[in-house]
C-alpha cells in the first residue's frame, strides 16, 4: 500500500515540489502539478525525456516508503493512519529534501554544494530517522507477547537481501543520469561496500556466538549497500573497501541505540539506513574525488579532502544535520497530529496485537496455518467439536470442551500421544485378521 500511496502523491504534486523551478532554495513550485508540462520535454542535458526522469525518481520514493513502512506497522501499528502519514510525509518531508540536493535547492548550491550521489539524505537518513521517530510514538511492543520470540523466516531474509543487492546495482549505477564509465564504476563501488559490510558484520557476530549467521551477513550487506548509496559515484574503489568495513562496524554497534533510548525499532532501520547513510555522506567529504565525480562527463566538483577541498566535510555535516533535524521534527509533528485525530490513532490495541496485525487489520495471512509453539510447556490441544469426539475431552486432559486451547501437563500429553500410538498399532494388527475373515 505504501507504493500505491507514494505513486499517487508523486504524480499529484510530489514530483513538481521536488524538481520544478522555484525562486527559493527550500521547495519547488506546482509547475509540474499532475506531471503537467513534463511529457515531451527533455531534461536539462537534453539526453532523455523528463517523464523518464520523473519515473526513475518515483522508484526512489517508493523504496524509501517501503523501508519506512516496516517501522510504521511492526506488529503494533494500525493500517489507516499509515496511509494518511505516507501521503503527508511524501509531500512535506521527502519532496523538500529531494529539492534541496537534486532540484536546485540550498544544499546543491551552498558553497559549492553537498555531495550526495544517489540518496544518502532523501532515501537513507529520511527513512532511518523518520522510522525511529514513528517507532517512538508507537511505543514498545507488548512484552508479554515477546516471550520465546523468534525470527519469522530466515530464508525470506536471504531472498529479500539477494533481490535488494541486484536492484541496488542499478539504483546506484544509473543515478548519474547517462551512459558513461560512471555507471559500472558506481556498480563496482556498490559491490565492494556490500561485500565488505557483510564480511565485517558477520565476523563481529561470530566473536559472540561462534556461528556464521546468515542474518548477520544480510544485515552487514544492507548497511554496506546503504553507505554506498551517497558515495558510489563519488569516491574511489579503494575507499569503498574502507567504507564497507566502517559501515559494518559502526552500524553493528548502532543496533544497541534502540535499547539505550528504549525505542522499539524492530527492523533496525535507524542503524542500517540512517547511520549508514550518514557514514557514506561523511566519506564523501573526505574521500570525494573530482576525477570520479567527473566520470559522467557532465559534473564538475572540487571533490573532498583527498583533493585538498577542506571545506567539503563541514558542508556535508551541515547537510546531514539539516536533513536529520528536519525529518525528525516534521515526522514528530505529523505523528502527534495524526494520532490525535479521532479514528486515526497510530497504535493498535492489546487485543489486536495478541490476535496479530495481519488478521486484525487486513483479514488475510501470508501463511494460513496455526503455528506450533516451540516451547513444549506452551503446547496445547485444540478443542474438538463435541459431535466429533468419541469421549469427553475432560476425561482425556481434564478441561472443559468449550476452551479453544488447553495447557497440558507434559506427562498427560505424552500419555495421550502414547495411547494414540497404541491404538494405531492395534488397528494395523487387526487389518490382516479382517482380510483373513
Automatic annotation (TrEMBL):
Residues 410-437 are annotated as: Disordered. Residues 425-437 have a biased composition (Basic and acidic residues). It is found in: Cell membrane; Membrane. GO terms for molecular function: ammonium channel activity. GO terms for cellular component: plasma membrane. Keywords: Ammonia transport, Membrane, Transmembrane, Transmembrane helix, Transport. The chain crosses the membrane at residues 51-72, 79-102, 122-139, 151-171, 183-204, 211-228, 234-253, 274-293, 313-338. Residues 2-367 form the Ammonium transporter AmtB-like domain. Belongs to the ammonia transporter channel (TC 1.A.11.2) family. This is Ammonium transporter. It comes from Candidozyma auris (Yeast). The lineage of its organism: Eukaryota, Fungi, Dikarya, Ascomycota, Saccharomycotina.
Amino acid at each position: 500500500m505504501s507504493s500505491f500511496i507514494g505513486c499517487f502523491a508523486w504524480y499529484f504534486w510530489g514530483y513538481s515540489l521536488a524538481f520544478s523551478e522555484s525562486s527559493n532554495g527550500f521547495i519547488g513550485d506546482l509547475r509540474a502539478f499532475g506531471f503537467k508540462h513534463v511529457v515531451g520535454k527533455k531534461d536539462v542535458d537534453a539526453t532523455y525525456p523528463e517523464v523518464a526522469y520523473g519515473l526513475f525518481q518515483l522508484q526512489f520514493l517508493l523504496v524509501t516508503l517501503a523501508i519506512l513502512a516496516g517501522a510504521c506497522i511492526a506488529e503494533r501499528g494500525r493500517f489507516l493512519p499509515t496511509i494518511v502519514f505516507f501521503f503527508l510525509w511524501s509531500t512535506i518531508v521527502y519532496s523538500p529534501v529531494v529539492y534541496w540536493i537534486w532540484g536546485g535547492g540550498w544544499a546543491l548550491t551552498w558553497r559549492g554544494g553537498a555531495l550526495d550521489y544517489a540518496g544518502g539524505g532523501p532515501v537513507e537518513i529520511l527513512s532511518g530517522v523518520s522510522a525511529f521517530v514513528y517507532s517512538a510514538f508507537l511505543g514498545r511492543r507488548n512484552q508479554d507477547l515477546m516471550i520465546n520470540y523468534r525470527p519469522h523466516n530466515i530464508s525470506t531474509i536471504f531472498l529479500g537481501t539477494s533481490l535488494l543487492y541486484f536492484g541496488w546495482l542499478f539504483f546506484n549505477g544509473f543515478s548519474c543520469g547517462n551512459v558513461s564509465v560512471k555507471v559500472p564504476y558506481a556498480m563496482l563501488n556498490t559491490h565492494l561496500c556490500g561485500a565488505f559490510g557483510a564480511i565485517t558484520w558477520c565476523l563481529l557476530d561470530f566473536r559472540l556466538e561462534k556461528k556464521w549467521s546468515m542474518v548477520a551477513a544480510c544485515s552487514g550487506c544492507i548497511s554496506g549497500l546503504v553507505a554506498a548509496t551517497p558515495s558510489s559515484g563519488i569516491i574511489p574503489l579503494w575507499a569503498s573497501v574502507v567504507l564497507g568495513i566502517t559501515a559494518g562496524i559502526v552500524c553493528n554497534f548502532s543496533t544497541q541505540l534502540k535499547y539505550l533510548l528504549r525505542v522499539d525499532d524492530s527492523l533496525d532501520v535507524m542503524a542500517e539506513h540512517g547511520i549508514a547513510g550518514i557514514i557514506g555522506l561523511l566519506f564523501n567529504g573526505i574521500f570525494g574525488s573530482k576525477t570520479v565525480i567527473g566520470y559522467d562527463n557532465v559534473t564538475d566538483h572540487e571533490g573532498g579532502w583527498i583533493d585538498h577541498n577542506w571545506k567539503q566535510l563541514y558542508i556535508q555535516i551541515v547537510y546531514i544535520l539539516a536533513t536529520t533535524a528536519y525529518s525528525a521534527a516534521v515526522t514528530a509533528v505529523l505523528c502527534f497530529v495524526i494520532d490525535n485525530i479521532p479514528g486515526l490513532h497510530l497504535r493498535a490495541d492489546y487485543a489486536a496485537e495478541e490476535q496479530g496485525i495481519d488478521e486484525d487489520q487486513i483479514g488475510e495471512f501470508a501463511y494460513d496455518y496455526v503455528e506450533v509453539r516451540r516451547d513444549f510447556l506452551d503446547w496445547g490441544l485444540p478443542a474438538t467439536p463435541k459431535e466429533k469426539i468419541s469421549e469427553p475431552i475432560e476425561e482425556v486432559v481434564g478441561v472443559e470442551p468449550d476452551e479453544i486451547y488447553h495447557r497440558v501437563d507434559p506427562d498427560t500429553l505424552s500419555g495421550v500421544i502414547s495411547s494414540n500410538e497404541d491404538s494405531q498399532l492395534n488397528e494395523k494388527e487387526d487389518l490382516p485378521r479382517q482380510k483373513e475373515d
